[in-house]
Amino acid sequence: MTARGADEPEAPPDAPTPMAEGWHDPATAWRDPLSAWQGDGTATRAPDPEGVVALVSDTWPRADAGLQITGGGAVAVDTDTLRTTATAFTTAASELEAIGLRLGSVQNMLLGTWGDADEVVAAASVLGTRLHETGAEAVGIAAALREAAAVYEVVEIDIALRAAALAGDADASARLEARRADVLSRYPEAGERAALAAFERSVMWPGELVRQGTQWGVGVGDTFSEPGAVWGGLAVGLGTIGGAALVGIGGTGLVRRDARLTGAAGPVVVTAVTPEGPPGVRAGVAPGAAATGGVGQAAPTSWRPPAAVAPQSLAAAASRIPGDGAARVRVEKYTMPDGSKQFALYIAGMQSADVACGDDPWDNESNLQLYSGRMSDSYAATQAALTAAGAEAGDAVHVVAFSQGGMIGAHLAVEGGYDVQTLVSLGSPVEADVGAGTLSVAIRHTDDPVAGLAGGGALGGVGAPGSFVAERVYDPATALEDAALPAHRLTAYAETAAIVDASGDPRVADVHAVFEGLAQAEAVEVSEYAAVRGDR
Questions:
Q1: Measured in whole angstroms, how far is the alpha carbon of residue 78 from the centre of its chain?
Q2: pLDDT at position 77, please?
Q3: Gap between the Cα atoms of 51 and 42, Å rounded
C-alpha cells in the first residue's frame, strides 16, 4: 500500500513534492496522515488511518541490510576517535585560515598591478571566500563531534554507574559521578541529550518488526475488506510500536547481574535418554553400555574421540540443541589434559503451548515464569541434568540455547553457581548482563517477535571482549503465514549461525576458539535428558 491511492485527489498546486519515490517525510510531504485533502484544496482534521498506515509501513527504519555484527548496546561509538577526529578538523581549520591569509597577501600585491590581473584577483577573492566558509564548517564539525563524544560518554558513564550500584562499589560510583559532573560542566546539554538518546533507542529499535507488522496487519485486514486492511495495519503497526516501547523502556528483556529467580519449582523428574550424535546422527553405544539410563544416570555415550564430538562452528553447535525428540537438555562433559572438566550445555526452546496444564516443563508456563523473573520447572530440570552429568559448582560451562533455553542460560550465567565461560543464545527473549568472564554471543532475527521481547538488549555491550550481537532479517517479505513465526524456528537460526560462521568477522574466531579448545580434551561423555513434571 502506498501513501497515495489512485482514487485520491491530486495534491494542491503549492504542495511540496516528496524528496524521492517511496520516501515520505511527515514534516514536508503533502499528504498529512492526520488530514484528508478535500476537492477544493482545503484540508480537514478528520483522522486518515490509511495515511498513518502508509507512514508507518513506508517510512519506519528498515533493517534488511543483511547480516549485522556489532558489539551490542546503544553505544557503538569510540568517543576517543570522535575527539581525535574533532582535533583533526580544528587543525584543518587553522591551516585553511593560514592559507587564506597568504592568499590575501597575494591579492593585495595584484591589486596594484596592471588590468590583466583582474581575473586572477577575482578568482583569488572567490577562493578566499570559500576557504573562509570551509574553515568555519570545519570548526562547526569539530564542535559537533566533541559534543557528540560528550553525549556518548555520558551514556557510557550512566551505564557504568548502574553497574557500580548493582555491585555495591561506592568508590567506583563516586569516581564516575565526578567524571559525569566534569563532562556536564563543559557540555551542559549532554545529560539531556544522553537521556533522549537512550529513550529513542528504547522506542525505535524494532524498526523491522513495526514495518512487517504493519504490512501483515494490512494483509490480514484485506481478507475482509479494504477498510479492514487499513485498520488492520493501523492496529498491528501501532500496537507493535507501543509494545516495543514498553519492553524497551521497562527493561523487562534484560537479565541483570543481580537477578535472582523467585519462588520454587517442581517437582520435576529428569530421565537420561539415548543421545544423538552430531550432526543429528544417532551416536553409537559403547560396548557393554546399557540401552537406557535412569534418573541421575548418564545415558549411553559415543566412543568417538573428543575432536570428532566437539562442535566445529556455531552452526554445528546450534544443530545439537534438542528439539524434535524426547530430550530437552544435552550435556557434553569434556575431560581436559590437565584433569579439569568442562561442560557444553545445549538447552531446547519451548516444546508445548500449554499453560499450567501440561507435563512438559518446556511450555508457555515456564516461558511466562522465566520472563517475569520466577523459577520455572524447565530451569530446575536443566540444573538437575547438569548435576546428573557430573557438573559441580564452579565448573566451566559453555551454554548454547534457543528461545526459552536462552532465558534458562541467562539465569545460569548470572546466578547458577557455574563458571559460565560462553553464552550463545539464538532467538532468546532476554539478554543477560554477564560480566567480563563470559563470552556473550546473541543471534537474533529482527523480524522475530520473540527475540524482540529482549527490547533490543542492554544499553551497553555485555560480556567479555569479543562478545557480539549478530542480527539480520530472516525474511523481508510478509505473508499471512508469518503468524506461525517462521523467523523464530530453530532451523532458521541454524541458517543464520552458518552465515555468522562464514562472515569473516574476527570476533567469530573467538567463539570458534572455544570449540577448538574443547576438541583438545582427552575424553568426552555425551548425555541427553528428558523431563516431565511430577504430581503437583
A1: 19
A2: 56
A3: 17
User: What DSSP assignment string belongs to 5-30?
Assistant: -TTSPPPPTTPPPPSSTT---TTT-S
| Euclidean distance between CA atoms 518 and 521, whole angstroms | 6
Q: What angle do CA 271, 535, 399 make, to 5 degrees?
A: 40
Q: Whole-angstrom Cα distance, residue 273 to residue 328? A: 10
Alpha carbons within 13 A on the beta-carbon side of 440 = 31
Q: 124-130: which pairs have CB atoms within 8 A and are 24 or more residues apart?
A: 127/103, 128/100, 128/103, 128/104
Contact 411, 293 (CB under 8 A): no
Question: Which pLDDT score, from 0 to 100, does residue 7 have?
Answer: 44
Banded model confidence at residue 249, pLDDT cuts 50, 70, 90: low
What tens digit of pLDDT does each residue of 79-104 get? 777 788 888 888 888 888 888 788 77
pLDDT recorded at residue 303: 54
How many whole angstroms separate alpha carbon 21 and alpha carbon 58? 11
**Contact yes or no for 381/332 (Cβ under 8 A):** no
| pTM for this model (two decimals) | 0.70
In sequence order, the 6+-apart residues with CB closer than 8 A to the CB of 295 are 269, 270, 271, 272, 388
> In 187-267, where does DSSP find H-type helix?
190-204, 207-222, 226-250
